[in-house]
Specification:
The protein is an alpha+beta fold and 193 residues long. It has two domains: 30 residues; 138 residues, Protein Transport Mog1p, Chain A (3-Layer(aba) Sandwich), CATH 3.40.1000.10. Helices cover 23% and strands 36% of the residues. The chain contains three helices and ten strands; from the N terminus they run H-E-E-E-E-E-H-E-E-E-E-E-H. The strands form two sheets. Strands 3, 4, 5, 6, 7, 8, 9 and 10 form an eight-stranded antiparallel beta sheet that branches. A hairpin with an 8-residue loop joins strand 3 and strand 4. The longest helix is centred in the N-terminal third of the chain and has 27 residues. The chain is globular and about 35 Å long.
Length: 193
C-alpha cells in the first residue's frame, strides 16, 4: 500500500512539474524572428479626427486634423509638405534637411532663415521628448516672420539616415491663437519607424 501511494505521489509531483514548466515556457515565449518590424506601440487616442500623410522617400508619416487641406503653394526648398485649415492658419509643415550639425538653437535659426524667414527666434529650450511611436525627438517653440506675418510655432525634430525631419505646427496668433496642447499633439504624431 505504501508503495502504491509513493508511486501515485511521485507521478502527481512529476505532472505538476511538467505543467508548471510548460506554463512558464508559454508565458516567456517570444515571437519568432521573421525579419519583419515589430508592431508599432499603440498610440494614444488623438483629440481630433485625423488624416495621415506618409512620405515613402524619407520614411516618415504624420497625422493631422481631418479638415485640414494640402497647401502645395507653401512647399518650397526643404519644406516638402504642408497642410492647414482652408483659411490658411493654423497649419503644419514638414521639412527634411541634411543633419549636418547637432541640433541647436543656432542651427534652427540658420535653417529657418535659409527658408526665407526673418526675425527667427527659438523661444524655448530644446527638450528631449518621445513621439507617439516611441521615437526619441527634440521639441521646441519658435517665432519668425514669414512675408508680412508673425508666426509662432511648435516643432519636433528627428534625425534619421543623415536627414533631419521636422514637423512644425504654426499659426499667426492674431488670427488663430497658439494652442500648445494641440500643436504638440499634432507634432508628436510624427512617426519615423
Amino acid at each position: 500500500m505504501l508503495n502504491k501511494t509513493y508511486k501515485l505521489v511521485t507521478v502527481f509531483v512529476v505532472v505538476l512539474l511538467v505543467l508548471g514548466l510548460a506554463l512558464v515556457a508559454c508565458a516567456k515565449q517570444e515571437p519568432a524572428e521573421t525579419g519583419q518590424p515589430s508592431a508599432p506601440a499603440a498610440q494614444p487616442a488623438l483629440s481630433y479626427e485625423a488624416k495621415a500623410y506618409t512620405n515613402s522617400q524619407y520614411g516618415f508619416s504624420i497625422q493631422y486634423p481631418k479638415d485640414w487641406v494640402e497647401r502645395p503653394e507653401i512647399v518650397s526648398g526643404t519644406i516638402i509638405a504642408v497642410f492647414g485649415v482652408p483659411g490658411f492658419i493654423p497649419g503644419v509643415s514638414l521639412s527634411v534637411r541634411d543633419a549636418d550639425a547637432p541640433l541647436t538653437a543656432d542651427w534652427i535659426v540658420a535653417a529657418n532663415t535659409a527658408e526665407g524667414n526673418t526675425n527667427v527666434q527659438v523661444t524655448s529650450d530644446l527638450k528631449e521628448t518621445t513621439l507617439f511611436d516611441g521615437t526619441p525627438a527634440i521639441a521646441y517653440t519658435s517665432s519668425f516672420t514669414s512675408g508680412q506675418y508673425d508666426i509662432v510655432s511648435y516643432a519636433t525634430s528627428v534625425d534619421k539616415d543623415g536627414k533631419r525631419i521636422r514637423a512644425t505646427v504654426w499659426t499667426i496668433d492674431a488670427f488663430a491663437p497658439y494652442d500648445e496642447a494641440q500643436f504638440s499633439e499634432i507634432a508628436r504624431t510624427l512617426s519615423v519607424k
